Description:
Layout: E1 3-5, H1 36-49, H2 57-67, E2 72-79, E3 83-89, H3 92-104, H4 108-115, E4 119-122, H5 131-139, E5 144-152, E6 155-164, H6 172-192, H7 195-198, H8 213-226, H9 230-244, H10 248-258
Antiparallel strand pairs: 1-3, 2-3, 2-6, 4-5, 5-6
Helix pairs in contact: 1-2, 1-6, 2-6, 3-5, 8-9, 8-10, 9-10
Amino acid sequence: MQYARMPVPAPAPGGECVPLLQVPGACPSEGQPMNPEDHDAAWRRIGAAGISGSVTLSTACRACVEDLEADFGGATLVTTGELRLLACATNERARAVEDAQLVTGEGPCTDAYVHHQPVEADLHQAEDRWPAFVALACDQGVRRVLALPLAIGNLLIGAMDLYRCTPDPFTAAQKDRAAAYARIVALLALDEHPYLIATHSRPAQRGPQGYPPTVHTAAGILAAKYELTPDDALARLRAHSFRHNQPLLRTAEHVLDHHSLD
Length: 262
């Protein structure tokens, strides 16, 4: 499992929740009542997708992707506002795009989580908002993204991303259904990761990136070898991953094995 500090932008002025990069007809606002028909329909699809009656977080993500005509998707969980866990990716392309948000420190998952609002964007029109992420996501064929916060009541635990390889926007009905799936995914996430209930969120703030122990160990090796600060060593790891288009953990493991980025 992959953990990392959630990179966050500064809160909106006044602390208000701002929907970023939303197209006209954006997703239902936070707190808007959910249509029970969408909730029931989503559960039926998830149940039908389960193997031998088993309903899991992965089952729900796959059912959501198929039902909403997305090409792939993923779910990210967040603890204490900074530790991030990639809990589900429907295929390797989804895993690569989710990792791109970790490597670049930006993307729809972060915005949906921080601002407690759905985010929908055509990536060809989002270069100014997420320049580094857009480049990597487009390399995987992504054209449109819909990200939704995962929450149960006031407990915010992460975000879910749905990706399309076409520019076609999600319809209003699909966005309503996506909100139902997001609530179910949040429930299943709490079932599989009950420690999330005991964590306490902290206000979003800027700061150096935090990463899994493997990444911190690798950064320590680079810091000692090249006389770098820990933050500069972490930045060098991220830059190398970005430049070579490879997962951050793979870069860290290479450093552990060879004591070098080369």
